[in-house]
Write a structure and sequence with these properties.
The chain contains 7 helices and 5 strands, in the order E-H-H-E-H-E-H-E-H-H-E-H. By secondary structure, it is α/β, with parallel strands linked by helices. It has a single domain (10-158), classed as HUPs (Rossmann fold).
């Protein structure tokens, strides 16, 4: 290996809780298997709640309760995914942050010296993409860290890593 080549050992896997988002974990496992001491950062981002829109006390209380429920759910979800990685012999940590998704993913990757971001594209197009945007596209455009984007058509939740090896060279 020459001085220019660097092993991919620190991988950031942003997860949104969807089945399509979870598909990146198979790719993440495969890539991590090419490193002696892989480290996977499982990241979930909570978008800010619109407190400014809450003019009545009962609405504000509802939003606080909803946010607390989201935090509990996200922690449980990330812990489940971390245990799955650990059972495959891959060191994983769970990270729960608040912020705008793309910006938060990029800043986390830079601050933590991540080697690769593995993210899923939900395959939205047209009006839906215009309204919701694409976090994966923004991350790919703006990140100084390399990004691997998976697409829904290539995603099979039960797909085994052997099948993935036909499409990825590590």
């Amino acid at each position: 290996m020459n001085k220019e080549t660097k092993k991919i050992c620190k991988i950031l896997a942003p997860l949104d809780g969807s089945p399509i988002g979870d598909c990146i974990l198979n790719y993440t496992r495969l890539i991590a298997s090419g490193c002696e001491n892989p480290e996977v950062h499982l990241l979930h981002i909570l978008e800010p709640m619109p407190y400014a829109l809450a003019s009545k006390q009962c609405v504000a209380e509802y939003l606080v309760t909803r946010e607390e429920d989201n935090i509990r759910w996200a922690n449980d979800y990330l812990e489940e995914k971390r245990k799955e990685m650990q059972s495959d012999g891959i060191k994983a940590c769970r990270v729960l942050l608040k912020g705008k998704a793309a910006e938060t993913i990029i800043s986390y990757a830079v601050e933590n010296a991540i080697d690769l971001i593995v993210i899923s594209n939900h395959g939205r197009s047209g009006f839906t993409k215009l309204v919701l945007g694409s976090v994966a596209d923004m991350v790919a455009r703006e990140s100084p860290v390399p990004v691997l984007i998976t697409r829904p058509r290539g995603c099979k939740a039960k797909e085994q890593p052997q099948a993935l090896e036909d499409r990825i060279t590590v």
